[in-house]
Amino acid sequence: MSAAPEDASVHRALGLSDEEYQEIYRLLGRHPNHLELAMYSVMWSEHCSYKSSKVHLKRLPTEAPWVLVGPGENAGVIDVGDDIAVAIRIESHNHPSAIEPYQGAATGVGGILRDIFTMGARPIAVMDPLRFGPLDDPRSRWIAEGVISGVSGYGNSVGVPTVGGEIVFDETYKGNPLVNVLAMGVLPTERLVLGKASGVGNLAILLGSATGRDGIGGVSVLASSGFDEKSNDADKRPSVQVGDPFEEKRLLEACLELLEEGLVSGIQDLGGAGITCATSETASRGGAGMDVDVSAIHSREEGMEPFELMTSESQERMLAIVEPRHLERVLHISAQWEITASVIGRVTGTGQLRVLDSFDGEVLAELPASTLHDDAPEYKRPMSPPSDLAERRQSDASLGPVNCVEDLLSLLCDPSWVYSQYDHQLFLNTVVGPGNDGTLLRLRHPSTGEETGRGLALSTDGNHRWCYVDPREGTKMVVAEAVMNIACVGAHPLAVVNCLNFGNPEHPEVMWQLSEAVDGMSEACVAFNAPVVGGNVSLYNETNTIDIAPTPVIGVLGMHPALSDPPPTVDLPSDSLLVLLGQEPASNVSMGGSRWAWEIGGCKDGVLPEFDLDEAVRTASFVASSVQKLSLKAVHDIGEGGLAVALAEMAIRSGIGAKLNDYDNHISMFNESGGRVLVVVGNNDLDDFLEAASAEEVTAKVIGQTGGSLLEFGPTVEISVDALIAASESQLPDALGQGTVSA
Amino acid sequence: MTRRVGVVRFPGTNCEFDTIDAIRMLGGDAEILWHGDPSLKNVDAIVIPGGFAHGDYLRCGAIARFSPVMGAVASFAQEGGPILGICNGFQVLTEAGLLPGALQKNVGMKFLCSMQQVEFVSTQNILGRGSEVGDHLQIPINHFEGNYVCSPEVLSRIETREQIVFRYTDNPNGSTKDIAGVCNEAGNVVGMMPHPERATSALLGSSDGASVIKSFLS
Prior knowledge:
- The complex is a heterodimer of chains A (743) and B (218).
- Chain A has 26 helices and 28 strands.
- The radius of gyration of chain A is 26 Å and the shape is globular.
- By secondary structure, chain A is of the alpha+beta class.
- The model of chain A is unreliable at 739-743 (pLDDT under 50).
- With 218 residues, chain B is α/β, with parallel strands linked by helices.
- Chain B has one domain (4-217): Rossmann fold, CATH 3.40.50.
- Chain B has a nine-stranded mixed β-sheet, with helices on both faces.
- In chain B, strand 3, helix 2 (69-78) and strand 4 (83-86) form a beta-alpha-beta unit.
- In chain B, 57% of the residues are buried.
- The mean pLDDT of chain B is 97.
- The interface between A and B is medium-sized, with 36 and 34 residues.
């Protein structure tokens, strides 16, 4: 028998390469039939197999004594003490959101929540870092509004608060938005369950929605190729799933009840690659096999083909592995929550995944379960830095037309139009909500509701400008920024999750960017002692072969050890002193990668400012402890837009101005030198504060005082706080608030 | 004696445990009443909490009013038992005909989650004990359909009979006459869009809702 398929167009249409077909042939020792081929194509897709990135991801630090579950499971799990564990995960839903913004975003939220309750945790928080094309592009506005409505419509209804995120607009995301979603849940440590099937004779029960023809090939057709003019994006719309938050809510409550009663020995959500993924992953994790009866799958319509049933990505479904003696109770709880439950599989000891037409009927597919993911290809794709990198780094990014006042106004954007559409208070935990540096939630025991007197902090951060100029240093700075954000609410980091949004992995520059970003992240995570407990890789973010600027998004989870009072906010109080923490950059610091250079100066090249990671570690730790001691009157991290934007945001929130002794040129105002934080201290507290900073080897410098109705930078640049407020508040409602999209 | 409060749980309800936490923190006792069970378990008072009962499909509260528990809730109201509907619970009570008026989509056509200031318009009801007319409270709202509407006849009736319990000082959603909460004629059934259970701790931004819940428990 020849290894060449009869018709090579079949596997190619499914997204498999000729080499991959050869490998399947070798593993099976025969040609796969169509159903088997479809199953391999979804499981070996970039989205499911991480085949291009795996080789790099291995370099990330993943271990610490408090890590209970690291990468590779549905979610990372951290031990936070008091018999409480925290499950956390981040994912992307970029391509579905580009085509069908509302449903793409909605199902992104739904998918990640299932990852969390799969671990036995009740999801208590969602964060949504969002990136869109520019506001003056009508299609980007349509996408932005649809995505925000989708997060709001699904997240609010399913009953999980959206407590923070980001919103970024840039040319690079025109045509390919980034819709990332992070979710976090809490569980009693002893309830932790893993997605594995064991115990020959145990039953695999499919819970939730009927399986339909929606989302077939989502991972292979949609997530694993880019957008271009030749393909009609509307044609891909049927590959986007449709979400039902009410079904998800009932599924969530039912599953948590099953877990609470100890009725399941393993549980797995159905996401990308549907039943194929859930059955093969649970079986091979448990070292078992499984027989799957396709005729038992409750479906939305008659006449669905086995390959459709096996690869559909219909939403709101879970697979529970249950001992036969618990079946009746499982069916009872499902019925109470109006959830359909079907026994679709049996755990076997063979290691084979068999698809059958009824348990004693025809065998439609038979393959070793582990081959679907353990044997997925792993590529060492060629990588090389851009050929013009050296030349690009010569550019002076500080050049361009300068008008400090106008430039500052144009860099302001109040995100409250977005987050006021999200329930961010449910569960009575939100101490510091969206619109601040980091989010801070009370940590209460998931079973008893008892307060622990501690808090969990979250932040998500990305910066495509920094990472485009220098993916390694840029990613390092992004991690530092995320850690600094949670330090501003009094937390020290416990763990990191990441969503690596990159372009086409077949482009050597993209693989170089990815590799550099991974190394930068590793270095920073080691320095901050924050292991990576999970991640997601989204590739093929490109339009007409132009890759997006590399956008690793970092989610960081932190702990506030003694939370009794709200921490200081970004609101500027009057008659106090402004102190800059962190190393002050030289007066000719590079503007490379800054928002000013990209959006005003028109230069995307140059080099990043020098970044001292060790000083950032000391500064973050000092800020967190100062916030815990409540020795600050206000605090705000300096990020994109530099010191001027950070200070303006503080003035806008309080309606109170400030006067700086210096900083009256665009370089000192807008440079984005990393690791800096603005704090406000009372006149009488200054000496003690400076002494404490010095003892921790943290650079601290008084740069001005607060008060008045103006923001003054040195003697020459001044602007009224009212003008700042007007510019900031009008941005999003003017662009997006026209009600052009309805769900 | 500690007051026992039944908190109704429909599929899709999501504020039931927050409500129970707030009640317990303020000295009451609370338990879940499942929507499919017509027994009220001899509770002293009932809360219909916030959320998306039955997914808010068809129309907020339109399906929930047919749940088996609602017949018992109506009888309980008739007998003068204290009932508080919060947000979705307010919508359910208007659909069930236990409160006047209806709640439609916010004028901005957006979901709104934000802190609001409300003012006591009448204290002649189960929430008013210990408060004065004109008292201002900071309590968050969290809804898409919170725009209170009613016919001119109903409006004049509820104004005359002091059935307007709260109004917003800065109307966020287009409600008629800034109405944020109303009660029935007897004052034993109250519905309000703001979430008092979310304003019971200074750590979370406001504790102004505590007085409302304490009055309900007294």
